[in-house]
Amino acid sequence: MERLYRRVARVPVVWFSLFLTVLAFVAFAVLDRGRPLGAPGVVALELAFSADAFRNIIAQWGDAGVQAYRVSTLCFDYWFPVAYALLLASLIALLAARSGRVPARLRLSLFALPFLAALLDWIENTLHLILLRDPRHISTPVVFIASVAAAIKWGLIALSVLVIIFLMLRELTRGHWGTKTR
Q1: Largest CA distance in the chain
Q2: What is the rounded distance in angstroms from the CA atom of residue 122 to the CA atom of residue 119?
Q3: Cβ distance 65 to 35 under 8 Å?
Q4: Dihedral angle over CA of 11, 164, 96, 111, nearest 10
Q5: For 34, which DSSP code?
């Protein structure tokens, strides 16, 4: 983990992962057009927590909306977690890195949060694709597990963003902003 921490604590990694993350957002926005206006979004599906709520959302989406969701999941939502995890983790590593010092356990733990979020995203995506193989037979436990994975994922992403904001503010108050070279 320490080796990965040091490799991603670089400005080019931040820019590359930012590019991939923005590219995925654009792709999701284009594919989201398959969902009818006013229908619940993907996050509502992710956090359905019950088979009835899940069924209700995909019914509102219709066949075209469900197909657009499948395509976006298969084509983009398996590499997108890698992109956002790399973006968040590289920002954390870049802002928390101390030249010539081994990263403390806390820094490594904070660095790992986005990767854990990405793993949970993959679990959620896979469970959703399994559920959508036969929308007439939606399993309540599988919906619940996928929703728990999504809820924890969103919490870890939010925590990662808060850590980045804290680290940026710390750099600003210490007058170190822009003085690190990577």
Answers
A1: 59
A2: 5
A3: yes
A4: -90
A5: G
For every residue of 64-118, DSSP letters joined together read HHHHHHHHHHHHTTTTHHHHHHHHHHHHHHHHH--TTSPPPHHHHHHHHHHHHHH
Q: Where exactly are the structural domains of the chain?
A: 2-174
Q: Which pTM value belongs to this model?
A: 0.88
Among 25, 178, 170, 172, CA closest to 87: 25
Which pLDDT tens digit goes with each residue over 23-37? 999 988 887 777 888
pLDDT band (50, 70, 90) for residue 87: very high
Q: Count the helices and strands in the chain (H runs, E runs).
A: 7, 0
Spatial separation of the C-alpha atoms in residues 182 and 176, rounded to whole Å = 14
Q: Tell me the per-residue pLDDT of 93-150, one tens digit each, with 9 for 90 and over.
A: 999 876 666 667 888 899 999 999 999 999 999 999 999 999 889 999 999 999 999 9
